């Protein structure tokens, strides 16, 4: 990948990350954070151990360990993984987001360290994810609960890399068949011709017939929820990396072009790209996720195409670092201005742990890190 003029900014920002985490990690070594209140992280291991974001804190620690080799990060990551064991005991609380929870924790632990128990956790959850596959509809069911048996969401594109890994490790092609089948269905039914993305698609769970789309966490039906765009951008990029199917790369590019055009004014992502201009609702997490996908895309294309994806990723990260990052070592979160969903005021413009995770992953990539955590 070509050298870029922002290397100084990348190095300086990474130093800020390390300096802040040196204070934040010891305060949270026994927690599974989601957001922060009064400057300090909460702890979902006590509030809701099955919460879908609970893998991001230990996952973030594995990134830092891969980058630095420091024992503090490895020990904290392993502690978070142990806390997640309680979720494995709660069958009814597990869902399609087991990929978010265990692929970047136990999966990375095994790939970096060869830990056998971590491998077992990752394989166990891969089987749980595979078990959610609807044979007639050719999709992975998203959430639990009566009435949404046919619901599929764009977020699952980030969960299926767990299945690609399980297939590669075990030699059993069934995991890969399910992952590719879900990706194919998502490509055809979630991604619109212009590169915008639907959040929720509802199928008849018995026949597999597509019934409707729902606005979900975006502004509404037909809108363009930016985090959904980012899940699709990075998710299809990852599916291409794991399968080398050209259709996935083409889809990732199409979604990327739409995303880049939508943020080009100031590179600060709004929560929905097809929402009213007022009020302005940002979602920094969408920018961090998309940046990771764009950096990987830049690695996959010819030399003179790379900057088409790399430079917007840098512009977003730089803009968000300037406008949205908190470097106060006495406050835990880094990336502020995340938004859970458009239609909620209490969940707007708040720190969310996966914002920090993807911001750090993006910087890791820009520094030359080679590990693919997904």
Short description:
The protein has 374 residues and is mainly alpha-helical. It is built from 13 helices and 7 strands. The strands form 3 sheets. The chain has a 3-stranded antiparallel β-sheet, with no helix packed on it. A two-stranded antiparallel ribbon has the order 1-2.
Overview of this structure, please?
The chain has 374 residues and is mainly alpha-helical. It has helices spanning 7-27, 44-47, 56-68, 71-88, 98-113, 116-130, 161-170, 173-189, 226-243, 246-263, 284-300, 307-324, 353-366; strands at 36-37, 40-41, 133-134, 139-140, 151-153, 200-203, 210-214. A 3-stranded antiparallel beta sheet has the order 5-6-7, with no helix packed on it. A two-stranded antiparallel sheet has the order 1-2. A two-stranded antiparallel ribbon has the order 3-4. Helix 1 (7-27) packs across helix 13 (353-366), helix 9 runs parallel beside helix 11 (284-300) and helix 11 (284-300) runs parallel beside helix 13. The longest helix has 21 residues, at 7-27. The radius of gyration is 19 Å and the shape is globular. The mean pLDDT is 97.
Topology:
Elements (H helix, E strand, L loop, with lengths): L6 H21 L8 E2 L2 E2 L2 H4 L8 H13 L2 H18 L9 H16 L2 H15 L2 E2 L4 E2 L10 E3 L7 H10 L2 H17 L10 E4 L6 E5 L11 H18 L2 H18 L20 H17 L6 H18 L28 H14 L8
Antiparallel strand pairs: 1-2, 3-4, 5-6, 6-7
Helix pairs in contact: 1-13, 3-4, 3-5, 3-13, 4-5, 5-6, 5-7, 7-8, 9-10, 9-11, 10-11, 11-12, 11-13
What pattern of helices and strands is seen along the backbone? HEEHHHHHEEEHHEEHHHHH
Number of helices: 13
Class by helix and strand content? Answer: mainly alpha
> How do the strands of the widest beta sheet line up side by side?
5-6-7
Mean of the pLDDT scores?
Answer: 97
**Tally of extended strands?**
7
Q: Show unreliable segments.
A: none
Distance between the termini: 20 Å
Determine the fraction of residues in helical runs and give it as a percent range.
40-55%
| CA gyration radius, whole angstroms | 19 Å
Beta-strand content bin: 5-15%
> Main sheet?
3 strands, antiparallel
Rough outline: globular
């Amino acid at each position: 990948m070509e050298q870029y003029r922002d290397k100084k900014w990348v190095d300086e920002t990474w130093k800020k990350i390390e300096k802040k985490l040196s204070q934040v990690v010891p305060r949270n070594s026994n927690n599974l954070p989601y957001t922060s209140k009064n400057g300090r992280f909460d702890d979902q291991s006590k509030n809701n151990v099955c919460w879908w974001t609970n893998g991001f804190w230990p996952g973030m620690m594995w990134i830092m360990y891969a980058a630095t080799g420091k024992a503090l990060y490895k020990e904290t990551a392993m502690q978070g993984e142990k806390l997640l064991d309680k979720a494995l005991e709660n069958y009814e609380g597990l869902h399609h987001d087991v990929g978010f929870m265990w692929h970047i924790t136990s999966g990375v632990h095994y790939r970096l360290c060869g830990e056998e128990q971590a491998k077992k956790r990752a394989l166990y959850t891969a089987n749980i994810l595979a078990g959610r596959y609807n044979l007639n509809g050719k999709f992975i069911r998203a959430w639990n609960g009566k009435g949404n048996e046919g619901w599929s969401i764009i977020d699952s594109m980030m969960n299926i890399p767990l299945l690609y890994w399980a297939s590669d490790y075990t030699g059993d092609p069934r995991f890969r068949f399910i992952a590719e089948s879900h990706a194919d269905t998502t490509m055809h039914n979630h991604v619109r011709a212009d590169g915008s993305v639907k959040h929720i698609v509802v199928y008849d769970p018995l026949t597999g017939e597509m019934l409707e789309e729902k606005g979900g966490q975006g502004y509404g039906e037909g809108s363009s929820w930016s985090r959904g765009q980012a899940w699709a951008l990075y998710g299809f990029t990852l599916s291409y990396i794991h399968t080398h199917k050209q259709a996935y790369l083409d889809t990732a590019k199409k979604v990327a072009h739409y995303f880049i055009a939508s943020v080009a004014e100031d590179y600060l992502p709004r929560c929905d790209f097809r929402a009213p201009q007022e009020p302005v609702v940002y979602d920094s997490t969408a920018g961090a996720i998309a940046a990771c996908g764009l950096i990987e895309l830049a690695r996959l294309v010819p030399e003179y195409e790379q900057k088409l994806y790399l430079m917007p990723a840098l512009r977003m990260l730089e803009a968000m670092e300037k406008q949205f990052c908190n470097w106060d070592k006495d406050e835990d979160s880094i990336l502020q201005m995340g938004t859970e969903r458009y239609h909620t005021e209490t969940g707007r413009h708040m720190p969310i742990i996966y914002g920090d995770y993807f911001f750090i992953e993006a910087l890791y990539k820009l520094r030359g890190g080679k590990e693919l955590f997904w």
